[in-house]
Design a protein that fits this description.
- The protein has 4 helices and 48 strands.
- It is globular, with a radius of gyration of 25 Å.
- The chain has 665 residues and is mainly β.
- The chain has 5 domains: 220 residues, no CATH class; 104 residues, no CATH class; 88 residues, OB fold (Dihydrolipoamide Acetyltransferase, E2P), CATH 2.40.50; 116 residues, no CATH class; 99 residues.
Length: 665
């Protein structure tokens, strides 16, 4: 059982956070909070050995092309400084649950609580299952233009090649070592945070090899490189995904419930079932602002400040809980759904918005395993914007009714949770919609001192949007920089360097400069412009009752598959070459860096005998530079991800060159 004052809890959180985990760093103001009552579970009269509570966070970037990227996590452990056995912090229940990384875009899943000794740890080890069928890939039903897969289709296991597997058939695993940029110091009686990024947006995570003959696409899955450490953040700003569980007990004073965590089966069964675990979690009621309570069996709903009044409807039943962290690591319920049926609590979906039909007032979103769900919005539907660190704002709707669907207030790509009126109805009506992450993704244009424009185009024309977004007010608190100094106003950074944040008075002028470039291949190829993901907050001083951008991450623009025109030339800072693409008439210069810490990532992708192998090439070494120079010659197929510059060149973030059987796209 969780104890508020205990120092014995190690909290393991799996999140998929977009492009640098900005939500962990944004401060959105004050508001009253609920503090759980002090309890103790230590019954010993002798001093206990000190232990340290740590919040382990595995985060990730968003990906619009996939509905399911399912993995099985077998083990997570920490490596003590100076040697000694690894300290295991997570082992899964049986059967091993599938974790859908796409579902966790900017949202954390609490996996476990355990104990570790105070001390210093230098790395984490992540072990994933690597047997055929252990990595599940299902394409989004309406993937972005240029996607190599079939929209809505599940990729057969024989078309998925997992890189770096070890072991024997039937017992294959993928070990991933994540070395910390700075040691993790786990301190007793303090909340310690470890943030491991599981980066779906990394171009080397999923590499498609399209055969020139038009055969089956091979997907190479590469976990080494896309998994790394991110800077720790404020735990109270961590947005948790909903917890599923079965209620074991209600505290005698009504202050909390204790649940056993249940993992939904993925892909979902019909009816959906859960995988029980031995993980016990204590969830406190919000005794100050109230917890929103929904009984899905009786349709009863109320705002409660104690679980006593609803205790008879809780024991032995399934719950779905939207919770937030307190500074001490305890969990407080924002909303609770309860039912005797696991199917009912699961059918209140959480996922990404796919389509918004403002004419018929319908939102289509994905559920936890990527299945599209249509929701009717009516005049009683309440919209919330999740602000975990501000309890009052977190529990207060920002607007009610259908009018919110107009004017790009909610667009494709938003991460939302819907509470439905009757989860067993043939068509679902949304009672509440929680906007967990408001993200505007696409081409950035017309950057000015007060605003900029984001444009995104999709296969379904109704999903397209062009929106002008204000920056937040220069006085709005916006987290801290890498040195712990408070930030106010808009901030931004490059995808590859989340710790190098542009903030302060120079942030907007630098952003304007960074997003004003373009690259032109000529012919019928559209000019390539800067792209990014902009994270917005509601009702900032800069834009009352609207969205304002708190942070933008400049993402590498994908360049169409092309070929090298002018050979690689090594220089003092790395090297460069030119490339051409189909239907283009111009050569464009690609610049790569060899500077340690910010070097361009280069990969050789070889397909021989239908086996795809991905080999990194280190530009900071003479060997790596030599290999790249030998292969980036006229005619070599090449794929580049980078940022267009004002002089028409492209600053490369990642380069793939292909050997063996060349890809078609």
């Amino acid at each position: 059982m969780f104890c508020k004052t205990s120092s014995k809890i190690f909290q393991l959180v799996l999140t998929v956070a977009g492009l640098g985990m900005w939500l962990m760093m944004v401060a959105c103001g004050g508001g009253s909070t609920s503090t759980p009552p002090t309890t103790s579970t230590n019954q010993s009269t002798s001093p206990a050995a000190p232990v340290a509570p740590i919040n382990v966070i595995v985060s990730d970037a968003s990906n619009q092309d996939w509905a399911m990227i399912g993995v099985k996590i077998l083990n997570i452990s920490l490596t003590p400084q100076g040697g000694g056995p690894a300290v295991t912090v997570y082992t899964p229940p049986a059967p091993i649950p599938v974790t859908n990384l796409v579902h966790l875009d900017q949202v954390g899943e609490l996996l476990a609580k355990t104990q570790v000794a105070p001390g210093t740890y230098t790395s984490a080890s992540l072990t994933l299952s690597g047997n055929p069928g252990d990595v599940l890939l299902t394409a989004a039903p309406d993937a972005e233009p240029g996607f190599a897969g079939t929209p809505g289709a599940t990729v057969p296991a024989n078309q998925i090649q997992i890189q770096g597997i070890q072991g024997t058939p039937g017992n294959l695993t993928v070990p991933v070592t994540i070395r910390f940029s700075a040691p993790l110091v786990a301190t007793a009686n303090q909340s310690n945070v470890l943030n491991l990024e599981f980066d779906l947006g990394h171009p080397a995570f999923l590499v498609a090899h399209v055969p020139p003959s038009g055969g089956a696409v091979i997907w190479a899955v590469n976990f080494n490189g896309p998994c790394h450490q991110a800077p720790p953040g404020d735990i109270t700003k961590l947005l948790l995904g909903h917890l599923h569980g079965s209620v074991n007990s209600v505290a005698p004073d009504g202050s909390s419930i204790t649940i056993s965590k249940v993992f939904p089966v993925k892909p979902a069964t019909s009816p959906e079932t859960g995988i029980p675990s031995s993980q016990s979690l204590q969830i406190f009621v919000d005794a100050v602002n109230g917890t929103l309570f929904y009984d899905l069996d009786t349709q009863f709903s109320a705002t409660i400040k104690s679980f006593t009044s609803v205790a008879s409807s809780l024991n032995g039943k399934f719950v779905r809980v939207a919770a937030r962290y307190q500074a001490d690591g305890s969990l407080v319920a924002v909303r609770v759904w309860v039912s005797s049926s696991f199917q009912k609590v699961w059918l209140n979906p959480e996922g990404h918005v796919l389509h918004v039909d403002s004419t018929n007032n319908i939102i289509t979103m994905t559920n936890e395993d990527g299945t599209p769900i249509a929701l009717q919005v009516n005049n009683g539907t309440q919209f919330f914007f999740r602000v975990p660190e501000n309890a009052l704002a977190d529990a207060t709707p920002i607007v009610t009714g259908t009018g919110f669907l107009a004017g790009n207030n909610i667009v494709r790509g938003f991460e939302v949770h819907a509470g439905v009126v009757n989860p067993m109805a043939s068509s679902l009506t949304a009672k509440t919609i929680d906007i967990e992450v408001a993200q505007f993704m696409g081409v950035i244009s017309a950057p000015m001192q007060t605003q900029f424009t984001v444009t995104n185009m999709f296969p379904t024309n109704g999903d397209n949007y062009t929106v002008n977004l204000n920056y937040i007010s220069s006085s709005t608190p916006n987290g801290k920089d890498a040195n712990g100094n408070p930030i106010t106003g808009f901030k931004w950074w490059y995808f590859a360097f989340p710790t190098v944040v542009n903030s302060g008075a120079s942030a907007i002028p630098n952003f304007i400069s960074a997003t004003s470039g373009s690259a032109n291949f000529g012919g019928t190829v559209p000019p390539l412009q800067a792209r990014g993901v902009s994270y917005a907050v509601w009702n900032d001083a800069a834009h009352a009752n609207g969205w304002s951008v708190a942070g933008t991450v400049l993402a590498p623009t994908p360049i169409p598959l092309g070929t090298v025109a002018a050979n690689w030339v090594t220089n003092a800072n790395g090297g460069s070459f030119t490339m051409v693409v189909p239907n283009g008439t111009n050569q464009v210069t690609i610049n790569a860096s060899s500077t340690p810490g910010s070097a361009t990532l280069v990969f050789q992708v070889d397909k021989t005998n239908n086996i795809v192998t991905i080999s990194p090439q280190d530009l900071t070494t003479a060997t790596g530079l030599g290999n790249v120079a030998a292969h980036l010659v006229n005619g070599t197929p090449v794929k580049v991800f980078g940022v267009p510059q004002s002089n028409g060149s492209i600053k490369a973030y990642m380069i793939f060159y292909f050997t063996g059987t060349a890809p078609a796209a």
